[in-house]
Amino acid sequence: MKLWGGRFSGQTDEYANKFHSSIAFDKRLYKHDINGSMAYAEMLGRQGIIKNEEAALIIKNLQEILCDIEKGTLEIDPAAEDIHTFVESQLVTRIGDAGKRLHTGRSRNDQVALDMRMYVKEEIDGICALIVRLLEALLEAAKNSTDVIMPGFTHLQKAQPVTLAHHILAYFEMFRRDYERLRGCRKRTDVMPLGSGALASTSYPLDRQFLKERLGFADITANSLDAVSDRDFCIEFVSCLSLVMMHLSRFCEELILWSTDAFAFIEISDCYATGSSIMPQKKNPDMAELIRGKTGRVYGSLAGLLTMMKGLPLSYNKDMQEDKEAVFDAADTVKMSLSVFCGMFQTLEFNIKRMYESALGGYTNATDAADWLVKKGLTFREAHEIAGKLVLYAIKKNVRLEELTLQELKKESELFDDTFYEAVSVEKCIEVRALPGGPSPAAMAQAIKDAQKYLENIR
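User: That's the sequence. What structure does it adopt?
Assistant: Structure tokens below.
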């Protein structure tokens, strides 16, 4: 069945027909398409555009088609042009001419725009739930690691001591922003396009406000040309997903590094690692690596969508059929990645002793040595130079700053005294960084409290 055959006398080339068909991927929209059609039929009956008995018959049979698909007793025909054609052809097969009245005043252009908006809203809700699950896992880990000292890094070089809780809560902030971005995207997606027709609305007295309420939308589109040709919401959605994947990838990169013998900060559970086919000793962080790799896949979907839309004149163009596979694949990839990452993170074993020992090395307390001298009256630039000379001297001696004798310290400045040693202990380095956002126990307690309150508000 074709919805547009009257104008044509010749048959579509078989290969062109396959090329044109979208049923292989848009079949996943069957639920959204049917729900949209049931609301549309109800509205047509209410408005007197079709008879109430016909509307009721259409709705009843659409419900049966939906039920049959869900039960598996009705297979979606792979030869159908698209999911809209398949559903309508099934309806006509079951109830005859009454089924042909369903499309009155409607185009596939506004129909597919509706289906995609319903799909994206649903996917955002599901992905946001997974992000909340991850935020809960991160917060729980942070609560249990406020006293776990580890090195912080810049340029992948040891920089200053922090706590594991502080490090984990940095990712909490990233995923919190992802959640907020997705909620904002949902708000802009939550606009009902049905009633826009092919591009210029319709002469039928459709009740768009009823459709908006019946389908659970917050508003209706303001311009029919824009409504059928807008895919901003798809691009924004995949852009948000790209940022989710970027944050997952950054975290995975660290877990990969931390699991190496060089770091040995963590042990990844056997449930989320694999072995080597030739090297018996290997335990590879394959899940983390796959998430890192799949990030590029989602980026590719975003690049494809942007490129597809960049030169399209108003209004609808067939190019826009390419939106679906990109959106579907990006959503599937992110859902799987979030689920796997959350399970992997919750089963990590942290090597607390190793982290602490690592924080002691690398002269992570050098800034605090300079700050101590500033408090004694030097300018920071003077203090920075003295601390740098002490680091160079300690490197040559292969000792830590706090292992230098007072006599050695005084060679660089007579300001040094015994209080220096406590000031540059890694515990003190963390304790004094009590500003909001810092790693001190007091700052961490407040950060955890704020994070807990945030989760309570969004659950």
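The chain has a mean pLDDT of 96.
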